[in-house]
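In this supplementary section we document a worked example of the pipeline. Step one takes a protein sequence of length 414 as its only input; no multiple sequence alignment statistics are reported here. Step two produces a three-dimensional model, which step three serialises into structure tokens for compact storage. The input and output of this example are shown verbatim.
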Amino acid sequence: MRAIIIGGGIGGLTTALALHAAGIGAEVFESAAEIRPLGVGINLQPHAVRELSELGLGEALAGVGVATQEFVYANRFGQEIWAEPRGLAAGYHWPQYSIHRGRLQMLLWEAARVRLGDACLHAGRRLVGFRQDAAGVAARFADGSRAEGDLLVAADGIHSVVRAAFFPNEGPPKWNGALLWRATSLAPPFRTGASMVQAGHRDRKFVCYPIGTAPDGRSIVNWIGETRLPADHPWAREDWNRPGRVADVLPLFADWRFEWLDVPALIRAAEAVYEFPMVDRDPLPWWTQGRVTLLGDAAHPMYPIGSNGASQAILDARWLALQLATQPGIEAALAAYEAARRPATAAVVEANRGDGPDRVMDLVHGRAPMGFHRLESVASQAELAALVGGYKRVAGFDPATLNARESWSPPQAR
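The serialised model returned by step three reads:
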């Protein structure tokens, strides 16, 4: 069996590695002419770290990411709403990592190059069409080249060519009115030195976490400033590399100085700022047609709430590889893959549209917009814990469930 994988991002590369571990051949076709470490920081939740660790990448991840120790929700005055340990400190068997998206992609690309071989990784190959029959799938690329395989996995992102072929009338992604500014800055460590912080509320939010340490001991802090604009405000197509301006985001957080974090100083220290609209797409009624299926953002693009986009793509990849290794045929495997992953990811898309676990900030802001003297007079710990814990169950990283479930490695790879 041999798979054609369209897209050399996190989902596509993890799929290639998972298939290789299962004894299934794969070739990756990436549209970009050059693989470069693009983007800024992301988080890998413990359920995704488990899957990458079982692919033998645990040590490599530890070398390029920061093991998150604490997760904090605060209001716009820096008053703590919720704080909890994360990763190993929270009882998971696997860490949670904050990591530069580009460094993670390069780590996966290099692992795929070593394990699959250079001949199986292709850059500058933009898919323009495909056809399939009972014998296999053929992909056609803009440079005139072709590839043939037994199945095709479309991991080609929110503007997937394959998804557009399946659903030609879907239209552009849906914007929810929120605009994000993303950047990294050098700054003194805050709180534990490995804390992830979200402050504010639905209409104005600031997120930050370290993704590395500079030689002088300062943290390399990834931060996101978010504001909500009127529904009729124009927005540009999302692009990880569209430049933004400090002058646009700084006034929104000019007085957000906490005892433990100076938000304006962090913004002013940005190396470069990128602007990104918060978009997703509606969950689909199906992902698979014959020998062709969708994966990752091509299947279920979601708002970057709850730190789950990349993690869900990694889960897709591992579950797909397990089904292809254990089901009696390709169509049965793709059906089993979709039956499990489509409803699971649709639930996360819908939860993120409802602000996911960030609802704890919205709840407290709604009841105490000018801050509080005692959090208990605004919201109980039980109420907040229900919101945070409920999201973990929806997204698949409730610690007890994750720690207890069986491995998704095929039996021959365990």
